[in-house]
């Protein structure tokens, strides 16, 4: 790491520590059931501090960005890891498809939705719009049994499916990826599926409804409830009715 990069990391680390609040730290640690150290800095403040550091130290090229992200992630501190993810999000335009390897390393070391959702749903998703060759990697993530990696593979579709040009390209692979996961027994996987379907239904209600209706009986209750949030009442009722057709022993919340 060069001196300028080390200076940025030191400044940001110090700013995060000084902005901390012990009471918030304890509340957040308990809420996330986290084993990391927490300074107690809320997300809007972390984003502000990262933006301030980026302005002060200037734009980052790819080598400096990756170096900063690794350095910020290394301490087992919740806020510095969030800052690493936000820094990657701000500079996603300099990342390359092969940087999915770094993202995967960070995701495997996350063990909480608070880090996974930012890295996968935002950073990895934005990278996919720029680098379509990342798609096979993300689809592989979704097939892994590890809960957080599987959730990551699902959430990488959030940004591409919300993009007008991305939807036609990424809707088919998303549905192919999602279909076998509808029966996954874990809450955070079920919630991720419903989240992507819910957000996609804002702009593409017909496609979401037509795809989900014949599969609603196999989905969990949480996936169904998330999916119907922005659908018309008649479609909501149809999906809820279809969901109730599943066998009682297969029904889940």
Question: What report would you give on this structure?
Answer:
The protein is mainly alpha-helical and 253 residues long. It has 15 helices and no strands. Helix 9 runs parallel beside helix 12. The longest helix has 18 residues. The N and C termini lie far apart (48 Å). The model has no long low-confidence stretch (mean pLDDT 95).
Structural class comes to: mainly alpha
Order of helices and strands: HHHHHHHHHHHHHHH
Shape: globular
User: DSSP helix count?
Assistant: 15
Low-confidence stretches: none
Alpha carbon gyration radius: 20 Å
Strand content: under 5%
Mean pLDDT: 95
What are the defining features of this structure?
single chain; mainly alpha; 253 residues
Summarize it.
This protein is mostly helical and 253 residues long.
List the helices and strands and how they pair.
Blueprint: H1 3-18, H2 22-32, H3 43-57, H4 62-73, H5 78-90, H6 100-108, H7 113-130, H8 135-143, H9 147-155, H10 158-162, H11 166-178, H12 187-201, H13 205-212, H14 221-227, H15 233-243
Helix pairs in contact: 1-3, 1-4, 3-5, 4-5, 5-7, 6-7, 7-9, 8-9, 9-12, 12-13, 12-14
């Amino acid at each position: 790491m060069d001196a300028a990069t080390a200076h940025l990391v030191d400044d940001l680390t110090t700013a995060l520590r000084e902005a901390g609040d012990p009471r918030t730290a304890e509340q957040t640690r308990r809420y996330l059931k986290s084993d990391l150290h927490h300074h107690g800095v809320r997300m809007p403040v972390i984003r502000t501090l990262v933006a301030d550091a980026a302005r002060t130290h200037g734009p980052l090229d790819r080598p400096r960005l990756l170096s900063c992200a690794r350095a910020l992630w290394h301490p087992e501190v919740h806020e510095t890891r969030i800052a690493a993810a936000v820094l990657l999000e701000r500079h996603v335009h300099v990342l390359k498809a092969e940087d999915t390897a770094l993202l995967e390393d960070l995701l495997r070391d996350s063990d909480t939705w608070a880090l996974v959702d930012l890295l996968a749903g935002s950073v990895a998703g934005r990278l996919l719009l720029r680098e379509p060759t990342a798609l096979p990697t993300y689809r592989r993530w979704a097939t892994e049994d590890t809960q957080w990696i599987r959730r990551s593979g699902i959430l990488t579709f959030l940004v591409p499916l919300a993009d007008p040009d991305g939807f036609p390209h990424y809707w088919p692979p998303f549905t192919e990826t999602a279909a076998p996961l509808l029966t996954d027994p874990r809450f955070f996987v079920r919630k991720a599926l419903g989240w992507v379907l819910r957000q996609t239904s804002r702009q593409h209600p017909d496609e979401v409804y037509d795809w989900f209706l014949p599969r609603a009986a196999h989905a969990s209750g949480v996936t169904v409830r998330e999916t119907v949030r922005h659908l018309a009442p008649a479609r909501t009722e149809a999906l809820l009715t279809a969901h109730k057709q599943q066998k009682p022993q297969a029904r889940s919340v």
